[in-house]
Amino acid sequence: MGSLQKTAVCLLFLSIFSRASNSTLATFVCSDVKTEYYKPAAISCIGSKNITNVIVKRCENCNKQNSCLETVINTWRGNNSSEKGRIRLVLQHNVSEVHIQEVKATDQGGYKWYLYSDAGVGDGCATLEITAPEIEPSLTWNGRKLACLSPTGHPQRQLHWFDDHGTNLTGSASLVSEEVEGGLTSLTSTLHETPILTASKYCCTVLYDVHTKRNKTKCLSTHKAVTDYPHFTSTPDPEIPKTMKEHVPIILVPIILVLCCFAAVLYYKCCQRAKPEGIFRPIKDPPSNFETT
């Protein structure tokens, strides 16, 4: 009788252990996704049996431990969506999908799944990669410093400076980053070369991926910059229009001359009238009583 009890207990333990083993051996397949900014994305994990509950956490990287801190989905607590429905769970039988509308920079990274199904419990991780626009940089020079603008792109891209000898001048530059729509950034790097630009050519390189070294480069010849820059081109001073005060003396000169002539004529006429009449009268013959015999 005692041996039968021992056998029953052993069978019970084996049954419990078998169920526990089955629950931990459940497997799920999660697929990585690559999309563009502002486009929708769907990350999925598929199991062999019907999935009942899902917990999804956002991670910095699937391979980085303790980086999954933000929970975006938790069906145990009734949270089937987050960010006002922009991120939501679609659960159908053995397929669980997380749909993300208008992806942005902060959506990129790993998504850790904790799945509960009729086959047991399992986990998986999928990576969402977002491709940002890769716009060629533009260079400007104001006579004292060079500026390189990368208008829109992924916040992790880098700007580097090189001269015509391949010397890295990035350490002599200052960088300003401004956030634009969707988590993208605008980068402006300014190269300060004082007192003058000594190299014949300067190049600005936008490094989009440090692993693949994917980049775009724009160069500027300092000789052409000096030729094109307005500060170094001599132009005649613009003619300043004469004001009314400058015109007045020129206009008064002929008026004064006319008045002087008119005054001279009047003076001459007045002098003529003031002379005695006898001077102009003819001399008559003497009276008869002065006649001699």
UniProtKB/TrEMBL annotation:
Location within or outside the cell: Cell membrane
Spans through the membrane: 248-268
Top-level division of the source organism's lineage: Eukaryota
Keyword entries, A-Z: Cell membrane, Disulfide bond, Glycoprotein, Immunoglobulin domain, Membrane, Receptor, Signal, Transmembrane, Transmembrane helix
Family annotation (Gene3D superfamilies): Immunoglobulins
A GO CC annotation given for this chain: external side of plasma membrane
Signal sequence segment: 1-20
Domain Ig-like as annotated: residue spans: 133-221
Pfam families, per database record: C2-set_2
Name of the protein in its database record: Ig-like domain-containing protein
